[in-house]
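Hey, resending since the last one bounced:
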Amino acid sequence: MHIDTQTIIPRVMDHLDKLLATRRRLLWGISGGGFAALMFGRREDTVIAVNPQTDISRFNAGDLGCYLDRAWGASPADLRDGKLKFVHNLTKRRHDWPRVIYLQNQSDGHVRDHLEPLLEHLGRKNREQDDESFKLIFGDWGDGHKRPPVEYMAEIVRSEAEVLLST
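The structure tokens again:
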């Protein structure tokens, strides 16, 4: 049985906002969790995305097939053929972006497959074009799809939480 998490999760988050009397959220995710944070962040929110996917169809074939099978009961062919009705490419859907802090390991294949298409979608000419709505932090955290040290990420989360709590 398929559960439409892309519809249910925002409703749950909205319900929690009402219960907690919150207006803005701080969402944080690594890799696929970064995709989710970007997906569910609203214009008034802040998202910290670490080496995120921005287009699930550009993920490696083995993991993509496993994800589609387990999460949607589908195959990569179903995705290519347009048979699946969920958002898998944020650059084709998002126009109301939250504030984004984007951490990216410089030797990760996600630079080419996910970051560069996103920057193009956002109309950013180069990687150094930071502003209040989008900040890109490049790091050298090892070869490939490696995250920054926990302490480094914790400091960014703490700092952004303070900003949200002070406004």
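The CA atoms of residues 91 and 159 lie 28 Å apart.

Sorry for the duplicate.
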